[in-house]
Amino acid sequence: MTNAEAYDRGFACLTSHAVGPLLAPAREIRAGRLLDVGCGTGVVTAAALALGAEVTAVDADPAMLALTARRHPYATIRQATLPELPFEDERFDAVAGNFVINHVPDTAGALQELRRVLRPGGSLALTWWKADEMTATDVVAEAIAAAGIPYDPPPRPFSACDTPPRFAALLEEARFRDVTIDTVRWRHRVDLTAWWTDVVQAGGPRFGFIAGQPPEVAERVRAHYLRLAAPYAEDGFPVCAHLARATR
Fold first, then answer.
1. What are the distances in angstroms from CA 104 to CA 13, 162, 191, 215, 234?
2. What is the pTM of this model?
3. 44, 78, 131, 166: least surrounded by Cβ within 10 Å?
4. Is 235 helix (H, G, I), strand (E, B) or coil?
């Protein structure tokens, strides 16, 4: 289970840059009922509530859901994991998923399920990282390698469909229409020491193991990270994501 507070201080702040563009389709159709799928600690939920939407937020992680429920009592909170959602057909006017589709092992099945819960004419918006332009986490992986720590990162099934043409094809196969995919870039400005602490303490599948290393080993990785991250101290880490929009 993720440390939700650490995730919120770190990764949630990183992902928040994409929330405005992600919710643009919901604003355009004045969505009344919005599903925040893979809600995390609720950055999309908060923005959607501010737009006046009736928000249902789902996530697989109980700690994330507890934090979101505590902060947003007017949202409906449910535990669920794609590609299975506990909702009737055509329940929502809009679905927004901020960096969740890249964690789902069955991408095609997840898209079919998201289409099922959307009403005809409803909007879908999904973001995912551009893997070769994710400096904010790449520096941590590079620090592990520089420290000589054996590291076997978890497989990434989504890498088979993470380019815009491949993902657009999957959306069309799932019978979505009006498919567009944009690229969003920003600089993630953050205190380098705080970023290290929050990434490690969050306890995710890629870097959570660092916290379980002997103190001298963890400190060696940290020293390499600070060296590799130093060039980004002033201007921030360059980050890139893709944003897919489609209509049911």
1. 21, 12, 30, 33, 34
2. 0.94
3. 166
4. coil
